[in-house]
Predict the structure of 1,4-alpha-glucan branching enzyme GlgB.
Amino acid sequence: MQFPKDPGQIKGFVKRSESGTGPEKRKSAPLKTAPKKAGTEAWISEYDIHLFKEGKHYHLYKKLGSHLRTKNRKKGVQFAVWAPNASKVSVIGSFNNWDKTANPMTHRYDESGIWECFIPEAEKGSVYKYLISSRDGYTAEKGDPFAFMWEEPPKTASMVWDLETKWKDKKWLNKRNKQKGKPQPVSVYELHIGSWKRVPEEGNRSLTYLELAEQLPEYIKEMGFTHVEFMPVMEHPFYGSWGYQITGYFAPSSRYGTPQDFIKLIEALHENEIGVILDWVPSHFPSDLHGLHYYDGTYLYEHADPKKGFHPDWKSYIFNYGRNEVRSFLISNAVFWLDKYHIDGLRVDAVASMLYLDYSREDGEWIPNEYGGRENLEAISFLKEFNEVAYGEFPDIITIAEESTAWPMVSRPTYLGGLGFGMKWMMGWMHDTLEYFKKDPVHRRHHQNDITFSTTYAFTENFMLPLSHDEVVYGKQALINKMPGDEWNKFANLRSLYAYMYAHPGTKLLFMGGEFGQTSEWDHDSSLEWHLCRYPLHQQIQETLKTLNHIYKSEPALYEVSFEHTGFEWIDIHDAENSVICFIRKGKKAEESLVVICNLTPVPRENYRIGIPQNRAWKELFNSDLDKFGGSNTRNNKSLIPEDIPAHGQEQSISLTLPPMAVLYLKLE
């Protein structure tokens, strides 16, 4: 990961204060505001309102929502909600027997659209909603957009909670800070919390956060991954949405425990030196009555025009990125997870759908921008600001874009005209590579370009190579069953796919189950097929991944210059007849270079000659055909001594045996 060494140089960045609790005070002209009413306490200050209206309040979670506090020597809960078009708002909940008249809220005097009240009877654990009546007679019971916890679905009320905890991950945060700006290996294990592992003896329930804290870190550490990426943990009403249809943006799902339980899981991962990435969904939200949709009887968070505000693919609603208060809500949400939960990175879902006004729309179904183009200028501006703020306050984190088009400079700094992400998913690599590996090896000689084309654009972005959940659902089959041939060939192909992936420039992401060759498509209602790990071929796939992760982390050539063309050099891409490719991965030191050779047919090839860059002895560092990985154990046991025989543009070359359907890594002795 290479980010600006001083993010503060970027216009718009907000530096974290020394206490780490918020932005530094900005100098500004005195605000002209209406006088406060007598006796009003400034829970929300005039400066808060100014920033909120400007779309620059990045810590709204400290002011809006429900907060335990003491007022006039009475303990209770401060409530605040944004509903500018409401005619009246009341808090209804367990503390007032859901009485619609017991706790009316006061509309602030400053035209912010915020309603407030303090309720002494409310306490931690109280459940509540806002009863919102609009000026045209619409009335609805709404959840709190800023609630830190919600009832467990299918219940839909928000819950008064706090985030008080004594964090124990200072060592990890210090290490993260020291590593910022330096090249690092990033190998991500993507995971759906509800279906990673279940308890069949107890109704096939999911593990809790605390149970995951006991089991998950040990497993990820054993497998050698550097990070775990959780599919959305934010509260969502429909379990089958996998978390991508969110109602509680500031609350980890109560299906698995409390916010403090989730913190324990993060602490346990950090204690084992495993980073935590969250999927974040600022692209759309569902139509559930208790959620953000039509919040105050108007299209508040979304666009009113369905050509801009409704998503045809997901039947959901699109945020209005041009509204300042909505920008404050979303960017505050991103900062919230980085701040309050010590999250190490955010992977932003569906970025392509945000960038294009005509995404999944036919002619006449979308509205061009002010210049007549299809680019969503408001979303572009929002994404840039999100990245500036995230890296400004937390310069040692990662932001990752799921962006599937040719949009330029997604992972380039905003001061150079980019969107400012740290990385971008390399969807083209994923598609071409899987299409290639699906083919019978007999036919691969006609498709050499599928496996080599990615390097023509591999250094235009900071790419992450994803084999994600999207590739193993909806009839696409598990990775192992995409592979052709009999059982031996399927596993040999899968080992070759992983070895090629780890050698290819870019960081790595693998969805759970792929590491042991799960045979069924992912089912969110079931556990992974852990029983398969009793069988040798599945154990050996695990062993392959463990070894690849270890090599990836220990060999600078595989990550040190991963995002620049200087870290990669082809040796030969032209042997299509044998479906062989070979290349060099380079670190900053020439002697750390690795030679990678992929023989992508099940035919061993003896006395195969390749040109090599240094006239020194080479040895096998990795061979995916070893018997411990489930292969035929065809190997090069002796040192590979260069001969003065020119080949592939090099003055010297080596002759070696290529194992069947296998990938070799060679290293200087």
